């Protein structure tokens, strides 16, 4: 009994111990029936959750997944466990320049690109177990109707400005060139691969007409300067409303804006908002309905956030109950930090500008970046794990979910590490969580005919209840505050407490002794089985498949958390459990090293100045058309590497190849100086 006494010598008052024991005996509902009809409960607690809409033209990597989608899924599952009426939605952002670019690269139409990548995205999120209510897309009739309705309201209330802008026009393609369709030398630092909106080298914002030696990305023709009228959202006029709303929202006692989100919005407001262009001279987008602008489409600054209500409307005829109901609906939005201005400035400004009642965002959870080992994720170089190949690793989706949430970059950048993934799986899941549950159920099966035995509590048992109650309170507080990374640690604390309890009480010895000791073992194992049942529901937001397996082994169905954040008896004496089996398998160093090598990507050998001396086109006789095509493709490659935040040596190597190609093109075409 000496070891057992150790777990009672904790700083827990007798009143807390007796309260824990009293609460244990209270029965609570543990099952909530799912409601198919997604309607708002008038006067009730309704939560609307969105995940940032990923661009349709790429495959999400692990950083994208934890940055918004997986985080939103965990919180939505948690809300449902609390019995809250919850609607969780997201989808693919399909309009704009990025889609047109991708379509050009693959030689297909923008619609075909969207259809292809929408399917890829959906398959990835389904494999990761994302329990969305609606997964939609922005290329719908509802998107057009809602975007144009908001536009007309902004126009009616004079929040739009018309301004003639100087733009680059390609005479060969017979079209105005949007920002990403033109490149040239930066007017500030002379960097040769500056885009029409920003220089990636010096970081300065630029106008496309300021580029030196600009070239059309599609055909490498030198563009002309032409005038084009565009519409701007008058953000300076709307700034007082945004500031008032932002201050009031983030100063509420229960506000859960992440610090990252607050810093970004404060920075924008402090510097003063500027009018933002909301139209573009493109074909692929939501058409602008105003006379004089009907040859244009809405720009992503304006159009993309409207995807949330339009996706809802596409699936739910009662969508306005959710989006025009600030009194009954609380809106949570999850995203990476680069998306904060869209959600915290642009869309709220549009909502205010309509003078209509909107469900404004109450909480923005924005995270920092997830890096990969000692590098950055790069699809083109095969560096890092992307959503479409995670399932081919043989590692279950729940393990990916667990680890990504364990390292969620809530306040600073974090790094995915294969070694750390292996260690966390083997220590926290296999040796801690899995070991506790498996031991408890195997002991019950072998010694009590797979039946939860009678329980007669002693002091150490009440201590266990009180310790678990403390962890439950912390878990709930953290989850409510969107501290998902810390929430999972309190689940692991509970299984750790359970392991300590079993180790101290040694039921495997007690069952071999007399009736009194056997009765003591019965209490220990009955309580351990109940702790396992509690863990199954706490795990549900994080590891839904594992949760389901545990409940199958326990022969229960449970999808509600205790309302009072207290540990209640779930499995009564006499309850028959199912077959106990190991929950997790050990990850071996050899297996992990193979995966690490598989996803390390192509390693280029570069000189000290970052440039590879080998010219892949050296010695080849190329025509002007061939060189134009190579310049375009190499330019695309350089832009992709920059967008993926590739290392400087790799980028410099590809820039050198591009400069050599441009020099050869100038010599062949006679345009060299």
TrEMBL record:
Q: What is this protein called?
A: Methionine--tRNA ligase, cytoplasmic
Under CDD domains, the record lists: Anticodon_Ia_Met, MetRS_core, MetRS_RNA
Any Pfam family the entry gives: tRNA-synt_1g
Question: InterPro entries, per this entry?
Answer: aa-tRNA-synth_I_CS, Anticodon_Met, Met-tRNA_ligase_1, Met-tRNA_synth, Methionyl/Leucyl_tRNA_Synth, MetRS_core, MetRS_Zn, Rossmann-like_a/b/a_fold
Catalysis performed (reactions): tRNA(Met) + L-methionine + ATP = L-methionyl-tRNA(Met) + AMP + diphosphate
Keyword Ligase assigned: yes
- Keyword field contains Metal-binding: no
Keywords of this entry: Aminoacyl-tRNA synthetase, ATP-binding, Cytoplasm, Ligase, Nucleotide-binding, Protein biosynthesis, RNA-binding, tRNA-binding
Concerning PANTHER family, the annotation shows: METHIONINE--TRNA LIGASE, METHIONINE--TRNA LIGASE, CYTOPLASMIC
- A GO term, aspect molecular function: methionine-tRNA ligase activity
- Enzyme Commission number(s) from the entry: 6.1.1.10
Quote the cellular component terms of the Gene Ontology held in the record: aminoacyl-tRNA synthetase multienzyme complex; cytosol
Q: Which NCBIfam families match?
A: metG (TIGR00398), PRK00133.1 (NF001100)
WHEP-TRS domain residues are: 623-673
Q: Where in the cell is it found?
A: Cytoplasm
Source organism, top-level taxon: Eukaryota
